[in-house]
Amino acid sequence: MIKLRYSLQILALLLISGVAVSQDDTKEVSPYKKLSKSFFGAVKRDIPNRNEKFFDTSFYAKISSAQTDRTLDNFRRAHGVIVAIEKTEVDTQGCKMATATSIKTGDGKFLWYLYFDQAQYIQRLAIDTFSDQWFYKPKPITSPNYTRKEVLFESNPFIKLPGSLYIPNNLKKPGPAVVLVHGSGPHDRNMCIGRNKIFLDMALELVQKGITVLIYDKRTYVYQYHDPFPMDSMDFQSETIDDAVAAVNFLKQQTGIDTSRIFIAGHSQGALCGPLMVKKCKVKGLILLAAPGRSLLDMIPEQLDYIAGLQTKKDATAEAQTNAIKWQVNNALKPELTLQSRMILPFGARPKYWLFDRNYKVLDVAKTITLPILLIQGGRDYNVTKKDYDLWGEAMKGKSNFKSVYFEELDHMFFTGTGKARPEDVTKVNHASQKVTDKMADFINGK
Length: 447
Hints:
The chain is an alpha/beta fold. It has 13 helices and 15 strands.
């Protein structure tokens, strides 16, 4: 759920018009194809110490290298050795790159994914069953009418974040704009999960409706594993809020934007932080996408229990992992927890992070906000549930500035589905529902 580290390189500023394809057009892709072929060739030939050339020398890279070896060993035992290394495709994932390579064994074809950092070192390997679609493909747009501008903005002197600005073409006067803010975890600007890019879906829908959209790589994605800030200082403020405020201020400096009509749209933890964001910058309104109505520490055990309830047979390993996280949650809830505590806490986050979570009362802050607020919730969401939706409704009852919409068929990523949502659903090819972006656009346009 929460991973807190990353690495920086200076990015060129590009201007790309009428983009309606997967974002593999912003970088030279051949080095990544060559690196992938070279690495998999070394795996096929079983070259000793092969990882040294492809992983950097950091502590976290050594862990990733060891995990990669374990994954490959398990794969070989299950499916045999590589018979052929076939086609490789490349995908831009924010400031980083990924490749997918068709690998053939005696058992058939598989997709091997490599994820690279900005210095072209491998960060991790993932193996999936073979499919026709290897990476994200946007919905077809009949007549693309926008420009994508690659940007870089400063959150503080040590934090610079790359992003993409989607600008409607042929605007006759300055128009509205929105910043999309991620949930927990190290997300790229598109919020890429598997073969899906939820924020890119939303950006492409909204820009076609005449709304400028800014999406950016989260600082815990850009600076993963080589961060310029101490982990002990990390909390919601430094992880999410500061950068969202900087993004709004950056938008205000751009041409073609009506600075009196800038909105923030936060997803999940980004929505949880939304009320604090709008206290720190002047915006027109706030959109809450799957917004928690309570602390993360309250929600995590419920998420774990839901996932455990999906199991059809007992899994001792999964049960042990669940119990370990619940034990860590209990540590984070102990009254004696202080900034100096050395307890084992959820997801490697430090005491400051969880003390912030414990002390932050999102609904109390939201009640003090007078600007327009729109809450959108999916009925199949088990991360943020109807319990949270109802908490928001009760807290904001009678407030004319608050609207809420509930879509029974949508999950946490606003994918359409039926039955109980499952963790693996987010990795299946899908798109964020247009119902959500329609509601967002209507709200932004004052309808």
